[in-house]
């Protein structure tokens, strides 16, 4: 039985890496002909309720493929929140290039919550509304300001934008967040080896975001090899693969 599992895992990794190399080639090919980042679309895609007509509190988590060749490997993630009665959303995210002009990568600003990330449409990961959400928003804001890696940014293996989103999710477990396997950096724990899974429904081991294992009700079972995630989600049945993301049932936003 163990031998069969080992063979199956090796085969799965081989398939993912083969498909991944194809994706890398296509990604670089697309990047060579992509529009300039200055003109790439940042238009909303219609996943967020209009604050002008939605007076209840709303908090959502999004992820979209990163700009250019980076999108072949991973996504950028962020959290958007609108307290009760507010006329606009506040977005909490980490943006690496902010460090070129300041001492923090942390951005807390108002922008369309479901805007394309430089041309790439976002996926909605979490959507909470109504009673009790105002309290969650306050805790997210507090946790964001306590993010310990705001003064540094490393694309791989972290800390990066996904490290930030995972950090917030561990502090505010009501988000019940299952980040996609393409969220490279979500497993970065700094100097710690053990932590709660981002969803709060299990635990994980991680060695500087390069090797690790996650076992949780929401995430399922994930193996991290050099920052690439391989796994299976039995709750919303799907394989989790690097480069490709989920293959199977789409995860329903909680």
Rounded radius of gyration (Å): 18 Å
Number of domains: 1
Q: How would you characterize the largest beta sheet?
A: 7 strands, antiparallel
Q: How many E strands?
A: 12
Strand content: 25-35%
Number of helices: 3
In helices, the fraction of residues equals 10-25%
- How would you classify the helix and strand content by structural class? alpha+beta
Task: Report the principal-axis shape.
Answer: globular
Order of helices and strands: HEEEEEHHEEEEEEE
The separation of the N and C termini measures 35 Å
What does this structure look like?
Helices cover 22% and strands 27% of the residues. The protein has 254 residues and is of the alpha+beta class. The protein has one domain. A 7-stranded antiparallel beta sheet has the order 6-7-8-9-10-11-12, with helices on one face. β8 and β9 form a beta hairpin. The longest helix is centred in the first third of the chain and has 32 residues. The protein is globular.
Descriptive terms for the model:
globular; alpha+beta; 3 helices; 254 residues
Gist?
This protein has helices spanning 2-33, 133-145, 161-171; strands at residues 58-65, 75-82, 90-94, 106-110, 123-129, 194-196, 202-207, 211-216, 220-225, 228-233, 238-241, 245-248. With 254 residues, the chain is an alpha+beta fold. The protein has one domain (2-248).
